[in-house]
Amino acid sequence: MLVYVNSCPHLGLPLEPLPDRFLDRSGTAVVCSTHGARFRVADGFCVSGPCTGDSLERVPAELRDGVILVPETAGL
Ligand code: FES
Q: Which structural domain, as residue segments, surrounds residue 19?
């Protein structure tokens, strides 16, 4: 399971424009609502925008019985 910290590497702001809305229409990119940086869902790499070449911070996670579990050490 892929989980990323909800913080854009450009300015450290939350990514989503609305609660729980992170992806573009194709569902293949996370889009930052502030300046439009686009990140591949598959690896969090920024492919366009002001932080091109940076990446979202990945968090180890596990889906168990419909609940997403992250370690306390993830600091979320
Ligand atoms: S804060 Fe995300 S692209 Fe600028």
A: 1-76
